[in-house]
Amino acid sequence: MSDNQGSADSYWSANLRLIGVCLVIWALVSFGFGILLRPLLAGITIGGTDLGFWFAQQGSILVFLFLIFFYAWRMNALDRKHGVEE
Fold first, then answer.
1. Which pTM was predicted?
2. Which domain of life is it from (predicted)?
3. Residue 27 to residue 73: CA distance in whole angstroms
4. Burial tier of 29 (Cβ tally within 10 Å: 0-12, 13-18, 19+)
């Protein structure tokens, strides 16, 4: 295995790890908090409604937008680290 191949493998490994973390956070917030844990979050109010409803309607969208910017920021850093930036 050449050094270039090792660098490509570490780049894709880090990329897939980042994607996995983002997907787990997204699933936890949208499916977990918005659907599965909604009855547990019903006693906590935010903005005049319960927290489970808030996550289902607005919180998951806000977290998703945060994840988009977080992913772009981390990928830019990863690209610079491996010398494949635009």
1. 0.80
2. Bacteria
3. 20
4. buried
